[in-house]
Amino acid sequence: MPTAQQWIDSLGLEPHVEGGYFRRTYQADHRPTVRTPAGERFAVTAIHYLLTHWSPIGHWHLNRSDILHFHHHGDPITYHLLHPDGRYESAVLGQDPGRGHLLTLAVPGGVWKASHLTAGDHGLISEAVVPGFDYADMTLGRVEDLLRRFPDHEELVRRYCHPA
């Protein structure tokens, strides 16, 4: 079974600002762009994303675009979602449907998201972003801002916010 470092090396992954490692694998540059309130975007983009035992957290962040997550290899990854109405939900991406694992998770744009490696060495996923990802469309969570929006979820907010 490949290790986290072997995936990083073989896929050419780099550290991600949210935590973990990534590399863009696709952008629909052969299609017309999509007009969004924030500007023109590719119709779709995709990345590989890896959480490891030494970088196990994808910190709170908000994307404007919808994102489909697909589990490929390794250990399960738990997702924490905070919806604009304050509702919390969680899901586990992994390879064991008998334990409630999902192979695919859709997260609508406008939902705050954090993730963590549930256990083990690593979890490898890919993400398809529609309309395509642009850093201008992503907001990293800050403790003060998220606590104002989601006061009922203080422990989760503090646990998964990126260190200042």
From TrEMBL:
<dbReference type="InterPro" id="IPR009327">
    <property type="entry name" value="Cupin_DUF985"/>
</dbReference>
<dbReference type="InterPro" id="IPR014710">
    <property type="entry name" value="RmlC-like_jellyroll"/>
</dbReference>
<dbReference type="Pfam" id="PF06172">
    <property type="entry name" value="Cupin_5"/>
</dbReference>
<protein>
    <submittedName>
        <fullName>Cupin domain-containing protein</fullName>
    </submittedName>
</protein>
<dbReference type="InterPro" id="IPR039935">
    <property type="entry name" value="YML079W-like"/>
</dbReference>
<feature type="domain" description="DUF985">
    <location>
        <begin position="5"/>
        <end position="140"/>
    </location>
</feature>
<dbReference type="InterPro" id="IPR011051">
    <property type="entry name" value="RmlC_Cupin_sf"/>
</dbReference>
